[in-house]
Amino acid sequence: MSVAKDNNPKRVTVHTLENMALKNEKISMITAYDYSMAKLVDAAGIDVILVGDSAANVMAGYETTLPITLDEMIYHAASVVRGVSRALVVVDMPFGSYQGNSKMALQSAIRIMKETSANAIKLEGGQEVIESISRILSAGIPVMGHLGLTPQSINKFGTYAVRATTNDEAERVLADAKALEEAGCFALVLEKIPAELAKRIADELTIPVIGIGAGGHTDGQVLVLHDMLGITQDFSPRYLRRYLSLGDEILSAVRQYSADVKSGDFPNEREQY
Ligand code: KIV
């Protein structure tokens, strides 16, 4: 099936998301890293496409998200943008492109916006990245925050377990969420925290809160495309709903193709000139 490109769709903007949250209309968000997948995901009516630094895992095969570079994120993001007509495209700022240096953060964000034509950036962290966020916002670049499990800090935490399970940590995440809203973030991702805490944060914030492994009370949900399609087969956190077993489908299709080549069945009379 081919997917026709709608040349005059109603684009999703940060204000669309704000209005959706106000009207209690749930926001759907999913990752994409390349043109073909982005085109399909956009045609399916997803509201937000995240060019996640999870590309480091699912596209490049790294164990963590740390190695992916700004150049690589820009390559993925520019490919995604070329496939999208409607969704808001948000690009993750990779590890090392914004932490501890707000001027570098602004330069990185400007490169992403100039070289990809994406609509917004996302970065991980709370109070410690507020200066970077403010500087990026001062250039008119919308910023999405990310709290809870922040994979770029894996070496600090040592595990991908559920975050904010103690009162102290929960209060810290709530304070960070408020600081991000105050700083001007247009939305916030909460990853792998207790549903009750995510609900409290979503209730106390006015900006849209998008959850992943954060329960059903947030304004929207995000999943990694390769996980929900069943392309990644060895990653099964409790929050993940698999909508397809595409990994199995691909295996069986490629096995069949290989067998057909070896048996001489492919190509047949109709498949040649
Ligand atoms: O990189 C990513 O895919 C993400 C989502 C898990 C939110 O940050």
Describe the protein's architecture and organization.
With 273 residues, this protein is an alpha/beta fold. It folds into two domains: 14-242, Phosphoenolpyruvate-binding domains (TIM Barrel); 245-273. Helix content is 41%, strand content 13%. The protein has helices at 14-22, 35-43, 55-58, 70-83, 102-116, 130-138, 154-157, 167-183, 195-204, 225-228, 246-263, and strands at residues 27-31, 48-51, 88-92, 120-122, 143-148, 187-191, 209-212, 220-223. It has an eight-stranded parallel β-barrel, surrounded by seven helices. The chain is globular. The structure holds 3-methyl-2-oxobutanoic acid. 3-methyl-2-oxobutanoic acid is lined by residues 31, 50, 52-54, 92, 189, 191, 212, 222, 224. Residues 31, 50, 52-54, 92, 189, 191, 212, 222, 224 line the site of 3-methyl-2-oxobutanoic acid.
